[in-house]
Design a protein that fits this description.
The complex is a heterodimer.
Chain A lengths: L1 E2 L13 H10 L6 E5 L3 H6 L16 E5 L5 H16 L5 H11 L1 H20 L4 E5 L6 H13 L6 H14 L4 H4 L16 H15 L8 H12 L11 H6 L2 H4 L3 H5 L2 H7 L11 E2 L11 H4 L7 H16 L1
Parallel strand pairs in A: 1-4, 2-3, 2-4
Helix pairs in contact in A: 3-4, 5-6, 5-9, 6-7, 6-9, 9-10
Chain B lengths: L3 E5 L2 E12 L3 E6 L7 E5 L3 E6 L7 E7 L4 E6 L2 H14 L19 H9 L3 H8 L6 E4 L15 E4 L4 H9 L8 E5 L6 E5 L11 H12 L7 E5 L3 H9 L13 E5 L5 H15 L6 H11 L1 H22 L3 E4 L6 H13 L6 H14 L4 H5 L12 H15 L8 H13 L10 H6 L2 H4 L3 H7 L35 H4 L12 H32 L47 H7 L40 E2 L14
Parallel strand pairs in B: 11-14, 12-13, 12-14
Antiparallel strand pairs in B: 1-2, 1-7, 2-3, 3-4, 5-6, 6-7, 8-9, 10-11
The chains are: A mainly alpha, B alpha+beta.
């Protein structure tokens, strides 16, 4: 599984022999690969006008391109805001609720993200083909797909440690611009242009996986909520800045503490573990039917609905499992 | 009929070929493949519609829709055969006599005494005593002993002490279908009660002294309050329209000390249509999130569920918090009234949240009070306008509550699903006919078996591992959030998509936890025994300190409930683009065969396996069929090697 940003083909259909060679060496002779472009075919084509574009078939003959349009940027932020508004409104009628949920389109984005990640995983696992994922910048939807695909395919990513490693690799080191994306969240009136809840979308997808495979992830909702919180506002330096270069310039490693160090302390770690966890060596294929994708109540209704009864249930589960 | 194809509902590519059989009680499809010989049994009673579709090159499609939401798509090669099957099924699924129903031929191989015992499991007299009646305020009345006053009521009803026979009879003449106010639930703690009736025949201005006295009697039976609520569960407009037909609702001016309230639950026709629309959404092939949510909203289904729940909450609050008695009615007092009274009772009294208590609740508020099972669920061929998912809605309310309060119910989701299944299956005699009177005339108890006994026998499968009788959630009244709470109502895919295995997690957390619980218990018991033994040994070895180390050699092999996930599955078809590339993965057939339904992993309580392995409906098999772009399989993959299907040993 590889990731990159878009090729700078431009409207002149520029070529780059080094890039072609690089992609060529990845595949064996006669082997085919897939490129999953997280933009619609049209958007990708339009990108040529501003210097971007796609890999032309004639120059990259061994690669087959698939388009899966994933929402990003401003529209994704709008979707998020609409959902949060729908949740906080004490809407009088049940009628409107589903309509509001639908018009936020958030769950559609979750479905699309999971489907695309599954597609990538399927190419790798079922077709035995190599996959290159990119969108425009390679810093948002690209990472969403590659990180989710790894969770689906690789059991080592599903342990608490492995998941942290996944986050480090596929989000932090890979340069997801946390500072720009996670500035003010849904209640902000100052709608920054660069703001977008892609990382939250990722966490939501992970939550969907945990719901569909309750035994397969070593961590639970509590960790996902902690990550959500820390991405936006943190006492730790892990999610600061937009990339490794900035973190180095700001001397983050020298002047802040790592979130992981705190999370991995034995007493803390305990709280984030899933009591039902049992190592699952297989690939986990989620269902992306609408019935299978649910609203992440623990996040979106976190301050609205009482969690007491559900907390009690988890405590009971813990008790039962520990008793064993 | 041979060479019939059974299609995967969502993918016409995956079809199995087999033989179709029609018996007096079932439709049976047996697969040809020698390794599986999988059988799909469907009881005629379960079939709600049969659709003969246009003949194609491959044959004549026949679509069978069931009341338990199973959908079966068959393709019969010859048009003539298809027509015959169709005509036969039409006749078979429209019985005219009760004797045609399966319950009269079902034989679980129990003797006469066991059958009787089964019927005695739920005893309503015991229940009323448990509630605390009869007492100073409430008495049992046998005025209806020959069903002379009201033929849809039971022979024994509880009424206020001051309600004489004269008052009861007078009141019954002023009530639709003669269903006079009677006790549904009595709250020992504060003497408040829930009573139920039908609408008064008040028209615009009619009055009835006895009926007014009846309501007064109910009020007087609760010295702690100087008024009662009268709750009309209909929308105001409907109730008002009824006045033109000489019926209507209680006028606060005429009935002293009542506070009248409309709740606004729609009627059976609206509910029937609502369910129909929701099922259409479920039948969509690869719907988008948008299609699904809009479809769900347009059906209005969850809105109705919430309305019923809100009514129950209102009544429970009135009783528990205000200590005020409530009289509930709708039009005839056998649909919405039953729903609302039973939801309220469930919220108020933790007993009804136990398995036995729930059975008692259904017997009391649905069976004994004359809910029209035959008309509503089509035991016999009848007026399609009478069909309506009334009890299904109540059962769903319970499920919604279970989701909000996971520790509060002794039983689990499977219990509810199996009850729903058997409301329609007519395998047992509990839900036949329209009234107690009819059931007695047919001698149901002598000629059929009780579902409750069957469920009770298999109760281990129905337990909720998170339930503890000393847990705070299982004490006292439940308080569901009233507002905001729209988002708390979820689509119950466990019921409406019951047979689409791909949609549900392949392993049940409930089953896992139950096994853990059992194992822990066994280990604890074992530990006790060993500790005792050790103590004895130490005692008997007075001077000699040789303590034999007892090996745990007699320890049973505890079914190790590892959540071993080596269940093969195939991914949903996420994309059509891959087809053109040569696939290097093993053929999908290998994985499927690993997931054969075996006796080990079927719960013995599963209605698909009745006592003599009578499989009456689509087996809940775990074989994974990977549809194209359809229902899918959230499950662990076997990778390249088709693993032994290591199931959670039951």
């Amino acid at each position: 599984l590889l990731r990159s940003s878009q090729p700078l083909t431009g409207h002149n259909r520029r070529r780059c022999p080094e890039d072609e060679k690089l992609l060529g060496t990845i595949l064996d002779e006669g082997e085919r690969g897939f490129i999953i472009d997280t933009r619609s075919a049209q958007a990708a084509k339009q990108a040529r006008m501003s210097g971007g574009g796609t890999e032309p078939k004639s120059f990259y003959p061994q690669w087959r391109r698939l388009h899966r349009a994933l929402e990003r940027g401003r529209p994704l932020q709008e979707s998020f805001i609409r959902l949060v508004e729908a949740c906080s409104e004490p809407s009088p009628s049940m009628d409107r609720w589903l309509g509001r949920l639908e018009s936020s389109r958030w769950l559609s984005h979750v479905k699309a993200a999971l489907s695309t990640a599954c597609l990538a995983a399927q190419c790798l696992d079922r077709e035995g083909c190599k996959v290159l994922v990119h969108g425009a910048e390679g810093t948002d939807t690209t990472l969403l797909v590659t990180a989710l695909a790894q969770l689906i395919l690789d059991p080592s990513c599903r342990s608490l440690e492995g998941f942290q490693g996944l986050l480090e690799r596929e989000w932090i080191e890979a340069g997801h611009p946390f500072q720009l994306r996670c500035a003010r969240s849904a209640a902000s009136h100052a709608r920054g242009k660069q703001e977008a809840p892609i990382f939250l979308l990722f966490l939501d997808c992970v939550w969907q996986l945990s719901r569909q495979f309750p035994f397969s992830l070593q961590f639970g909702e509590r960790l996902l909520l902690a990550l959500f919180d820390n991405a936006y506002a943190s006492a730790y330096g892990t999610f600061l800045c937009n990339n490794e270069r900035e973190r180095s310039l700001c001397k983050v490693k020298e002047s802040t503490h790592s979130l992981w160090a705190w999370l991995n302390q034995p007493e803390e770690r305990q709280k984030y573990l899933n009591p039902l966890y049992s190592h699952n060596p297989l690939v986990i294929w989620p269902s992306v039917e609408p019935q299978s994708i649910q609203l992440w109540q623990g996040l979106f209704l976190r301050w609205i609905r009482p969690s007491q009864h559900l907390d009690e249930a988890w405590a009971e589960i813990q008790r039962l499992v520990e008793g064993k | 009929v041979e060479n019939v194809r059974l299609l995967d509902r969502l993918s016409s590519r995956r079809a199995v070929v087999g033989t179709l059989y029609l018996t007096a009680t079932h439709v049976i499809f047996v697969e040809n493949g020698s390794e599986t010989r999988k059988e799909t049994w469907v009881l005629h009673s379960q079939i709600s519609s049969i659709e003969k579709q246009a003949t194609t090159a491959t044959g004549c499609p026949l679509l069978i829709r069931c009341k338990n939401f199973q959908v079966i798509q068959l393709v019969i090669p010859q048009e003539r055969d298809c027509h015959d099957v169709y005509i036969s099924l039409i006749r078979l699924t429209r019985p005219v006599k009760y004797e045609e129903l399966y319950c009269f031929s079902f034989n679980p191989k129990l003797d006469k005494e066991e059958r009787e015992q089964g019927w005695k499991l739920v005893d309503l007299n015991e229940e009323y005593n448990r509630m605390g009646v009869p007492n100073n305020y409430w008495q049992i009345s046998d005025v209806n002993r020959d069903y002379g006053v009201c033929d849809s009521y039971p022979t024994e009803v509880y009424v206020p002490k001051s309600a004489t026979a004269h008052i009861i009879v007078g009141s019954s003449k002023f009530r639709s279908r003669r269903r006079f106010p009677a006790l549904s639930y009595y709250c020992k703690g504060n003497n408040a009660s829930i009573c139920r009736s039908s609408q008064p025949l008040s028209g615009f201005s009619a009055r009835c002294l006895e009926d007014e006295q009846m309501l007064q009697a109910i009020r007087k039976a609760n010295p702690g309050s100087d008024f009662i609520y009268v709750v009309d569960t209909r929308p105001k407009l409907n109730a008002m329209a009824n006045r033109a037909a000489g019926k209507g609702y209680e006028n606060e001016d005429n009935y002293s000390n009542i506070k009248f309230q409309f709740i606004g639950i729609e009627n059976i026709h609206v509910m029937r249509n609502s369910l129909q629309k929701m099922l259409e959404v479920c039948e969509l092939k690869s719907p988008s999130m948008s299609d699904f949510l809009w479809g769900l909203e347009n059906s209005g289904w969850l809105k109705h569920i919430k309305a019923i729940m809100d009514a129950g909450i209102f009544i429970a609050k009135a009783v528990a918090e205000e200590g005020v008695s409530v009289l509930v009615h709708c039009s005839d007092g056998w649909d919405r009234t039953a729903q609302v009274c039973s939801v309220a009772s469930l919220l108020l009294d933790p007993y009804y949240r136990t398995m036995k208590g729930f059975m008692v609740l259904i017997e009391k508020d649905w069976v004994s009070f004359g809910h029209k099972f035959n008309h509503r669920y089509g035991n016999l061929d009848g007026d399609p306008k009478e069909i309506s998912p009334v009890i299904d809605q109540f059962i769903e309310c319970v499920w919604q509550l279970m989701e909000q309060f996971p520790c509060a119910f002794e039983f689990n989701e499977r219990f509810l699903i199996h009850i729903q299944h058997h409301i329609y299956s007519c395998q047992f005699g509990n839900f036949l006919c329209n009234s107690q009177k009819e059931r007695r005339e047919l001698k149901i108890k002598e000629r059929t078996y009780s579902l409750w006994a069957h469920l009770w026998k298999n109760r281990a499968d129905y337990l909720n591992p998170l339930y503890r009788s000393d847990h705070s959630q299982s004490q006292g009244t439940l308080h569901p959030q009233i507002a905001p709470c729209n988002f708390l109502y979820k689509f119950w895919s466990g019921l409406y998509n019951r047979f689409e295995k791909g949609l549900h997690p392949r392993q049940s957390v409930t089953d896992y936890l139950m096994a853990v619980k059992e194992e822990t218990q066994q280990l604890e018991e074992e530990l006790e025994v060993l500790q005792e033994r050790l103590a004895n040994l130490q005692k008997s070895q007075s001077g000699n300190n040789k303590v034999k180390s007892k090996q745990q050699d007699q320890s049973k092999q505890f079914g190790l409930y590892t959540s071993n996930n080596s269940l093969a599955n195939t991914p949903q078809e996420y994309s059509n683009d891959l087809k053109s590339f040569p696939s290097r993965s093993p053929s999908q057939g290998d994985e499927d065969s690993a997931l054969i339904l075996t006796q080990d992993n079927l719960k013995s309580s599963d209605p698909d396996l009745s006592a003599n392995s009578d499989q009456e409906s689509g087996v809940e098999d775990l074989s994974c069929r990977s549809p194209s772009g359809g229902g899918c399989l959230p499950s662990e993959d076997s990778g390249k090697d088709s693993d032994e299907a290591v199931f959670l040993a039951g």
